[in-house]
């Protein structure tokens, strides 16, 4: 019988707790749920009010991996949902607003991916994101070099950037913005990616062309488009080990000389949160959001 757990007054059926989802380490579904329960205080503010796309991997990263954007069948009636625009017509998506909703979603075994806007203002960007993706033999070490350049360039325009690992090979750069549409942020980000390529032609690349990417860092500006989503801070990833998209300090970025220095798994996060709190908390403060320069 599936055990029933009560979370803040909501009854949840949490299934297959002993199932190993990450065979390389023996990390189980129960440990996945424990991870999300213990990181909820820092994770939930980055999910709240944002339509969530679920990248599900119910049999682990070696099994079937698939996106679920619409409200999944069987979603409890108490889980908040919102209608969001899409090119093919309006759709309804989940909002993970509280701990019960988080634990219900985590029981699906999923990565959390969110837009750069909130449900009440679709297309009005409140985030700017760069996904720095290294082409072999480049690694996150080279991503750090590009991130530092972008940080300084954004600062020139009064925009404060923060970093997190992608939870895979690369690095994400995030900034809070206001007063611009997703299209405007995309165009601005593309311009900075082009500047980065011009400033560091042997290292940075703003084009996705596969043949150009070996040994370089692709500065993916396209995730600022209103339809796109990015891995949420603190989400577990469907990778061989329970890697996390983990916030990092700029000192860690500056001092990174080996990819292992910025590879964090679920057990690493509790002590990091105890030491640092939420390194991305400034993204949630409207008074710290930057505005794009007007051309």
TrEMBL record:
Pfam families (UniProt xref): LigD_Prim-Pol (PF21686)
Stretches of the chain forming a coiled coil according to its record: none
Superkingdom of source: Bacteria
Domain DNA ligase D polymerase span(s) in chain numbering: 28-279
One MF annotation (Gene Ontology) recorded for this entry: ligase activity
Keywords carried by this UniProt record: Ligase
Keyword Ligase: yes
Matching PANTHER family: BIFUNCTIONAL NON-HOMOLOGOUS END JOINING PROTEIN LIGD (PTHR42705:SF2)
Listed name of the protein: ATP-dependent DNA ligase
Organism: Streptomyces cupreus
């Amino acid at each position: 019988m599936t055990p029933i757990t009560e979370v803040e007054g909501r009854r949840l059926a949490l299934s297959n707790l002993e199932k190993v989802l990450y065979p390389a380490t023996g990390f189980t579904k129960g440990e996945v749920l424990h991870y999300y329960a213990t990181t909820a205080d820092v994770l939930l503010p980055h999910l709240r009010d944002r339509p969530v796309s679920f990248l599900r991997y119910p049999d682990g990263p070696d099994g079937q991996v698939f996106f679920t954007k619409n409200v999944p069948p069987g979603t409890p009636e108490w889980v908040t949902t919102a209608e969001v625009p899409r090119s093919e017509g309006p759709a309804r998506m989940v909002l993970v607003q509280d701990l019960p909703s988080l634990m219900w979603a985590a029981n699906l075994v999923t990565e959390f991916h969110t837009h750069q806007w909130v449900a009440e203002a679709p297309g009005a960007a409140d985030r700017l994101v760069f996904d720095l993706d290294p082409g072999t033999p480049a690694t996150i070490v080279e991503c750090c070099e590009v991130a530092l350049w972008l940080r300084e360039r954004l600062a020139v325009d009064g925009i404060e950037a923060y970093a997190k690992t992608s939870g895979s090979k690369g690095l994400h750069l995030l900034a809070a913005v206001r007063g611009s549409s997703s299209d405007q942020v995309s165009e601005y980000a593309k311009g900075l990616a082009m500047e980065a390529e011009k400033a560091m032609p042997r290292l940075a690349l703003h084009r996705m062309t596969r043949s150009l990417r070996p040994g370089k860092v692709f500065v993916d500006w396209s995730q600022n488009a209103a339809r796109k989503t990015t891995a949420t801070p603190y989400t577990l990833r469907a990778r061989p080990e329970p890697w996390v998209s983990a916030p990092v300090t700029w000192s860690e970025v500056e001092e990174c000389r080996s990819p292992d220095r910025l590879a964090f798994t679920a057990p690493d996060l509790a002590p990091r949160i105890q030491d640092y709190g939420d390194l991305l908390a400034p993204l949630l403060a409207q008074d710290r959001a930057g505005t794009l320069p007007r051309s």
